[in-house]
Amino acid sequence: MCVRFLLYFGLAAAACRWWRLTDKMRRERVRLFPVVAAGFWGCALLFLWPWEAASGALGVAPLVVAAVAVQVASPWTDRRNRVRTW
Fold it and tell me: What is the mean pLDDT of residues 22-26?
């Protein structure tokens, strides 16, 4: 059962491209598309979720919450305040 949890969250984390959510030079601080993408990948990978442990919503919800929390907590530079270095 633990292997299925590890596979589910590991593949979902890889599919959501978290490094783009934490990029300091991203356009907006919080975007809706990565949150929707996290939910999509969470639902798409539910075949790995051990159904006898809990419902699948308990697997998708942490991914969606994490997508929002990562964007809010990561440093971000507003376009108006950026200094060009080239």
Answer: 86
